[in-house]
Specification:
This protein has helices spanning 9-26, 41-52, 80-87, 109-122, 159-165, 184-188, 203-211, 244-252, and strands spanning 2-6, 31-34, 62-65, 67-69, 99-100, 128-131, 153-156, 178-181, 192-197, 229-234. It has 260 residues and is an alpha/beta fold.
C-alpha cells in the first residue's frame, strides 16, 4: 500500500489522472472502475480537461460503476448511473454502451448482481479502480461487517452513510436504505486501486484502514492485502496517520520510473 500525501484536491486529481492517462495510452481498451461521491470529482475534472485539450482517447475504454442505489426510478439525477454520466463519461469520448453500472432497479437483484460480475469478467477485469472511503471505512457500499471476500450484492446502508449522502438529496428521507455494490472481493480483483480521501472528516477512517488491523469492521482495511493499492490523501485526511513522515519521505525519494 502506497500512501501519498498531497497539498490539495487539485494535486490529487492530477496525480490520479496521470496514472489513468498512462494506462489508457498503454492499453486503449482499459477497464476503469468508477466511483461516485465527492472524492473522485477532481480526477474526472482533470481527465475531462485533458480530453478537451486533445490527445487523450477513451473511445475503446470501458467503465464500470462501483455501486448503485436500490429503489430510485430510472433517470433519477442522484442515481449513480446518472452521476457517472454527468460527472465523467458524458465529458469524454467513452462509448455509452461501454459504461456499465449494477442494476439497482432489477426485479431479480441477485441475478442482476451475478450478471454484473460476469460483465466485468467478460472484459478481462478492472485495470484501475477509483475509490473513495466512507467515514465508517466503507469502500463501494461495503459497510462495516461486510465479508472481506464479498461479491456484488445488495447491502443496507448504515444510518451515518445515509446522513453523509443526504447532501445530494432534498431530505434524508429520500436517501434509499438499500444499494447494490461491488463486493470487497470484486474490488480486490482490480489490478490497481487508487483511493482518494480528503478533509478532516476522513482522518479517522484513513488511520483505521491504513494503519489499523485488517478487519470487517473497517472494510477498506482489506486494501492492505492488495498488491497494488495507492492511497491519495490531503493533509487533513492524513492528520491522524502515525507514519505520515515516513510516507512523505518514501514518496519524495521514489524513483521516477516507478509511476504510481
Ligand atoms: C461511491 C462509493 C462510496 C464513496 C464514499 C465516500 O460510489 O462507493 O464508497 O466513495 O461514500 O463518498 P465521498 O467521496 O462523497 O465522501
Amino acid at each position: 500500500m502506497e500512501v501519498v500525501i498531497l497539498p490539495g484536491t487539485k494535486q490529487i486529481g492530477a496525480l490520479a489522472a496521470d496514472a489513468i492517462e498512462a494506462l489508457v495510452r498503454r492499453k486503449p481498451n482499459a477497464v476503469l472502475g468508477l466511483a461516485t461521491g465527492s472524492s473522485p470529482l477532481p480526477i474526472y475534472d482533470e481527465l475531462a480537461s485533458r480530453y478537451e485539450a486533445g490527445g487523450l482517447d477513451f473511445s475503446q475504454a470501458h467503465g464500470f460503476a462501483l455501486d448503485e442505489y436500490v429503489g430510485l426510478e430510472a433517470g433519477h439525477p442522484e442515481s449513480y448511473r446518472e452521476v457517472i454520466r454527468r460527472e465523467f463519461t458524458n465529458r469524454v469520448n467513452i462509448k455509452p454502451e461501454n459504461v456499465h453500472g449494477p442494476d439497482g432497479a432489477a426485479e431479480d437483484l441477485e441475478a442482476a448482481c451475478q450478471d454484473y460480475e460476469d460483465a466485468i469478467k467478460a472484459v478481462g477485469g478492472v485495470d484501475l479502480q477509483i475509490l473513495g472511503v466512507g467515514t465508517d471505512g466503507h469502500i463501494g457500499f461495503n459497510e462495516p461487517g461486510s465479508s472481506l471476500a464479498s461479491r456484488t450484492r445488495i447491502k443496507t446502508l448504515i444510518e451515518q452513510t445515509r446522513k453523509d449522502n443526504a447532501r445530494f438529496f432534498d431530505s434524508i428521507d429520500d436517501v434509499p436504505h438499500h444499494v447494490v455494490t461491488q463486493g470487497l472481493g470484486t474490488i480486490m480483483d482490480a489490478k490497481h486501486v487508487v483511493l482518494v480521501a480528503t478533509g478532516a472528516q476522513k482522518a479517522q477512517a484513513v488511520r483505521d484502514f491504513v494503519e489499523g488491523p485488517v478487519a470487517a469492521i473497517c472494510a477498506a482495511s482489506i486494501l492492505q492485502m492488495h498488491p497494488h493499492a495507492t492511497i491519495l490523501v490531503d493533509e487533513a485526511a492524513a492528520s491522524s496517520l502515525k507514519l505520515a513522515d515516513y510516507y512523505r519521505h518514501t514518496y519524495d525519494n521514489k524513483p521516477e520510473w516507478q509511476g504510481l
